[in-house]
Specification:
mainly alpha; about 120 residues; three-stranded antiparallel β-sheet
Length: about 120
């Protein structure tokens, strides 16, 4: 198979909605009700098939798995969803800050700027 193959591209795509609700619940060791609950809490928003069935991506399953870990430790589902959202936002902010620091270090590297 080559990367020109659309099927290969979908198999490698973390955002491709490949999993039905039943399969996603089975993979996570949870119930469809748990997936519906985290959807209602707006942690993940599954795509819908033409028939209206929920479809989940690998990325969404990783997010759901993190929420499940928290719920299994006794965290209420709404709080678990909020924690996961905040963790995701923090990770993104840290990534952006690292990019800015890297760009600033590159631009300051040869300029020898003086304090003003």
């Amino acid at each position: 198979m080559t990367s020109d193959n659309p099927l290969h591209d979908r198999l490698d795509d973390d955002d491709y909605p490949a999993y039905t609700m039943g399969r996603a619940a089975e993979m996570l060791g949870t119930t469809p009700a748990f997936l519906r609950a985290i959807g209602e809490a707006r942690l993940i928003t599954p795509l819908r098939s033409e028939g209206g069935h929920r479809r989940y991506s690998r990325y969404q399953l990783r997010i759901a798995a993190r929420a499940r870990e928290l719920v299994d430790k006794g965290t209420p589902i709404e709080a678990a969803c909020r924690i996961v959202i905040l963790e995701d936002q923090l990770e993104e902010a840290q990534r952006i800050n690292a990019e800015y620091r890297h760009a600033a270090d590159k631009s300051a590297g040869g300029s020898g700027s003086s304090p003003g």
